[in-house]
Design goal:
Largest sheet: none
Number of domains: 1
Mean pLDDT: 85
Number of strands: 0
Strand content: under 5%
Helix content: 25-40%
Radius of gyration: 10 Å
Order of helices and strands: H
Number of helices: 1
């Protein structure tokens, strides 16, 4: 299930925008128990 999407340049790692996504999901009360991100 996809609950939040953020589009960035290809050079931006997921770990750089995790906080932004987390806050967006929290605003809609959709926080998961675990976040899966790509650090590469």
């Amino acid at each position: 299930m996809i609950t939040h999407v953020l589009t960035t340049d290809a050079t931006v790692a997921d770990t750089e925008v995790t906080d932004i996504v987390h806050h967006g999901m929290a605003a809609r009360e959709l926080l998961p128990d675990e976040h899966a991100v790509d650090a590469g």
